[in-house]
Amino acid sequence: MLDKKQFITIKGTKEGLTLFVDDSCTFEHALNELREKIHASRPKHDEPVVSVKVKLGNRYVQEEQKEILRKIIAEDERFTIDSIVSDVVRRDEALQWQEASEVKTVNRIIRSGQMLEVTGDLLLIGDVNPGGKVVSTGNIYIMGRLNGIAHAGINGDKQAFITASYMKPSQLRIADYISRAPDYESDGVYMECGLIDEEQDKIVIDRLQVLSHKSEISGFGRRMQNG
Amino acid sequence: MGEAIVITSGKGGVGKTTTTANIGTGLALMDKKVCLIDTDIGLRNLDVVMGLENRIIYDIVDVIEERCKLKQALIKDKRFDYLSLLPAAQTSDKSAVTEEGMRKIVGELKQEYDYVIIDCPAGIEQGFKNAIAGADKAIVVTTPEKSSVRDADRIVGLLEQESIDPPLLVINRIRNHMMKNGDMIEIDDIVQILSIDLIGIVVDDDDVIKASNSGEPVALQPNSKASIAYRNIARRILGETVPLQSLEDEKGVFQKVKKFLGIRA
């Protein structure tokens, strides 16, 4: 009986394949069938690599199990994994997401030698003086003067950005990118933002309006996308 | 019950000791009972600036290690009856004083004096911690230089973590012609960065150096610019409202007339 039922359904879309994994069978059963299906539907060598989305429905998988899925699907290097999506999240993960997507409001001056570190986005009402440093896992919004160092997306979020009412930072850091102020004396800029320009592969400072072109500003949306 | 004010700066050489001596003298001139404490153990200067070097018998370390009574270590000023100095030790180092010991001494002096002015050593180590231990208020001294403002900012940050009133700012060694040319940081910019209340500005005046070499605080001179500035700071500490000194040199008659007529020079 069990053998008759399909655990894995494959659908082709414009972007590639979507694998629906049934959420009522055991993980082992699903894996077995997945191996067979992948083997059977492997594209020929001259065909392009196909990207695969895995949808797990109401099944929760551990990181290790995800790793196994990745291994099976990407085995012959004919498929690439676009995403593995489950409809379920664990409670502690959800709380982590919530923390990472919250905007923490801080109302003080960050002086020389001081460092402010938050999880999530930071809204600082006050200045960052030369020699001071603010760090967040998400975006940094400063209602005040940024004269020190700001580091957004410290856990590697390249989508993060930094805005300030007045920007004359000694350094801007986003994820693992660093840019510093020029050696010559320069004036700061008002109401601008620092973000990573993917074409130039470096941090640029631009008008705030460019942020409206960014698809996801809220930290939660980013987390949902990036898993 | 008096008030203990610590004079600090972070950076060395910006004029902490001079400011301490002159604010103390300024307060004494207004008939307040003032005690100065030098906490720069090992590098004492305040006694030299006050011209009291020869009179030192006991010092602050002797008091803390109970080799003498606090009263015995106090040196009465030669000019004012109610101005005293508790000198630092020259032979020990900063670890000879503890925060607890400082609190006790300052507490005892506050019973007797209206103002206890504490001269803080440069740096942010033990000497600084000792100096601020007993203080109720703090005055941060800076000069219009980047490095000095940066250190002052650090000090303000450290003071904010203590149970002290928000610090007040003295900008020292202002050179008017450099400020005009934009070669020095402007007063407004310094106040904006540090965002604490300004209590006085003091111009760079040759008389200050002359006075400290002769052991007579400049605040005793009637007319020099720095002297007036320091006495103004003392008046502001007492709660008077005194306008900031003009940095401009004496203007010609023509400009005075212009100003009188309300034309902007």
Automatic annotation (TrEMBL), chain A:
Gene that this sequence comes from: minC
GO biological process, one term: division septum assembly
Segments forming domain Septum site-determining protein MinC N-terminal: 8-84
Job of this protein: Cell division inhibitor that blocks the formation of polar Z ring septums. Rapidly oscillates between the poles of the cell to destabilize FtsZ filaments that have formed before they mature into polar Z rings. Prevents FtsZ polymerization.
PANTHER family: SEPTUM SITE-DETERMINING PROTEIN MINC
Family stated for the protein in its record: Belongs to the MinC family.
Annotated ranges, domain Septum formation inhibitor MinC C-terminal: 106-205
Alphabetic keyword roster: Cell cycle, Cell division, Septation
Protein name: Probable septum site-determining protein MinC
Description of how the protein assembles with itself and partners: Interacts with MinD and FtsZ.
InterPro entries, alphabetized: CAP/MinC_C (IPR016098), MinC (IPR013033), MinC_C_sf (IPR036145), MinC_N_1 (IPR055219), Septum_form_inhib_MinC_C (IPR005526)
Automatic annotation (TrEMBL), chain B:
GO CC field: cytoplasmic side of plasma membrane; cytosol
Described function: ATPase required for the correct placement of the division site. Cell division inhibitors MinC and MinD act in concert to form an inhibitor capable of blocking formation of the polar Z ring septums. Rapidly oscillates between the poles of the cell to destabilize FtsZ filaments that have formed before they mature into polar Z rings.
Name by which UniProt lists this protein: Septum site-determining protein MinD
Domain AAA: 3-155
Pfam families: AAA_31
Gene encoding the protein: minD
Gene Ontology biological process terms, A to Z: division septum assembly; negative regulation of cell division
Molecular function terms from GO: ATP binding; ATP hydrolysis activity
Gene3D superfamilies: P-loop containing nucleotide triphosphate hydrolases
